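pls ignore typos typing on phone
beta-D-fucopyranose + seq
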Amino acid sequence: METKSSMYLSLLPLWFLCFIIINLVSSSSSTRYDDHIPLRETNEEEDVHFPKNFLFGTASSAYQYEGAYLSDGKTLSNWDVFTNITGKIADGSHGKVAVDHYHRYPEDLDLMEDLGVNSYRFSLSWARILPKGRFGDMNMEGIYHYNRVIDAILKRGIEPFVTLTHYDIPQELEYRYGSWLNPQIREDFEHYAEICFRYFGNRVKFWSTFNEPNVQVILGYRKGTYPPSRCSKTVGNCTRGDSEIEPLVAAHNIIRSHLAAVSIYRTKYQEQQRGKIGIVMNAIWFEPVSDALADRLAAERAQAFYLTWFLDPVVFGRYPREMQEIFGEDLPQFTKDDLKSSKNGLDFIGINQYTSRYAKDCLHSACEPGQGGSRAEGFVNANALKDGLALGEPTGVDWFNVYPQGMEEMLMYATERYKNIPLYVTENGFGENNTGVLVNDYRRVKYMSSYLDALKRAMRKGADIRGYFTWSLLDNFEWISGYTIRFGLYHVDFNTLERTPRLSASWYKNFIFQHRAQSQNDDA
Ligand code: FCB
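k done
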């Protein structure tokens, strides 16, 4: 492995080049990529109206909502197994029942209809459809269940926006061959995706292959806090793993699986079914902690090791330059076939935007591993403090500060880098510790209102944003935090499962109503 200082020396000419480029860029008033896309002149006074077909929705995922963990032919998923291990989940809970959406979806869809949303983003449980992956039969009960759900959504005038996998996979694939670490998983994912297109694609017009593969890989294979709990012993509490290399391997297999699913959709289904396919990424905005060139480059590197890690290969057919420089030959290679399918690898990008962080350079200054001092972190401390403070307003949830400006920056970054590709904000929402706020969630209202303003500013600058989904309709199982953090527009009593609207539910309803009225006026 290259030492840090020798790598730094080998990068010197590059720093110099970057220095010149950054100075050129900052001395003009233009944006970095404005020779590629025609961004609009901004006019702060001008109000932007959401187009009539803009999707307003709420988002959920199978493991966090459904429950019914062994009903109607479903078998165990990786999350069923993981939550069963003592000490993994903050309150020792699990998703066996969750908010029982499996049985209560008609009631929940009524709530959505009442809010006036025109789209619902949810995920399918792979283990419900293929309990043993491609090593067993399809579970028709699972297919019938989702058929009923999709029909019920459409009956209410709502558009289904479907994720194929939101962190959960059949445990069988973990047992058999180590899931994402094994290239075989691509065949399983292809098989699963094709079944979904075949059975549901006549009614589903929005597909995303993965939800937040960056989070899945970093937490599952670098930090080891999500299944399959793999990491180096120096990094976390894992019995096996390699935090430097395994995330690269898992990510590579995910990207290739995405490309394979897209290729099947394009060649066999899209023309007839007329849907769109994309991927959903967790998107943190990284702000340089200082104006120094090294920190500005660190902020850029932070994106390379988080967001563009997955998006650049799918859009451009290669990993981000910063990753190539740091990992060199350890970075997996794409085959010719992968590159062929990556030409057209996305119709849209889903952006899950909640929070922002300061990024501080760790190539020039010493940082501890875990605080930026490792290759896997791209030598960036992405939790840096400025004058002792983190970026944005703290919420009480450790990973989560409120910084609406980050939404605008993030959307513009994706717009500029990916040449104005259509964007959907597939998740944004406010989480509170279980503080006893039953219905008066004014902080959530303030959060949503300020982030939606930021989204509009990006639209005003020309970003092609086509939808906004808030996370989430209901309080639900928040992964390793269990039921201790609440994100719902509706409060859920986890004993009775009763749903009670919060202030934010009426606020969102009113927001959607007003914007519908505006877009109708625009048409008149
Ligand atoms: C996102 C996840 C989603 C939910 C929210 C709060 O990163 O995609 O499942 O947990 O965070």
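The first strand starts at residue 55 and ends at 59. The two ends are 65 Å apart (CA to CA). more later
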